[in-house]
Amino acid sequence: MASVENKVVLITGGARGIGAGTATELVARGANVVLVDVDQPPLDALVASLPEGRAVGVLGDVTELASMEKAAAVAIETFGRIDVVVANAGIASYGSVLGVDPATFKRVIDINITGVFHTVRATLPAVIEQRGYVLVVSSLAAFAPAPGLAAYNASKAGVEHFANALRLETAHLGVQVGCAHMSWIDTPLVQDAREDLHAFDEMIASMPGPLSRTTSVEECVQAFADGIEKRRRHIYVPGWVGAIASGRGLVTSPLGSRATLKEVPRLLPMLDAEVRKLGRSTSARNQ
Q: Taking the model in full, what pTM does it have?
């Protein structure tokens, strides 16, 4: 049976949410973890909460290749290897294409796409040595876009295809590559958006069927940990996201867009007005 026992797993965005939960679960299953984040206090608190010697925290910024190279060096210095990389760090912006702050839009792309490249570029030589596994965290948004989140939609579609290309490049080297797609997960990213924007809450509620529901971090963490152990090509959270992935052409068709288009004239101006009132196009934490 596949196992992470004694494996070394490097996780970006490791201080909170899915990254922190996945790290905790993998340590419980026998792994050692290297947690990379830009936020020192929660990073230190998480490392302190895990069994001594099983986790190390690295203050690092995925937008800087040198920072990720340092994180990879710390992992090898501490544990001697890197078996698994989880490229998880990501943020979102608020506002329509005409309403979002351009600098924030660019920052989302820099963190969510270039940050994944830097993470993989810095760690891949060590992963190749172990014939290991890379998990790129994308989203349901890669193929089911939401209005007002263009930067996030574009970045998650981009990293999905990055993972597809990486898989082709590394298969002959024994490295397997997975891509995770999640619907709304009750992470700080979603919590912050709901706190900041009433229109965001309404947008989620207006979506058809399961698209309007939020999944717990705990359920997502179990799916991630299982997928990492089994080196899965795709991880879908909840499982029905896989069905939408297989029918992605329908999602953006006139028929698939009909329900969303009914709400856009009402909700998008509301969203942009709330963003203007906030004076920022992302959460206060990310700002």
A: 0.95
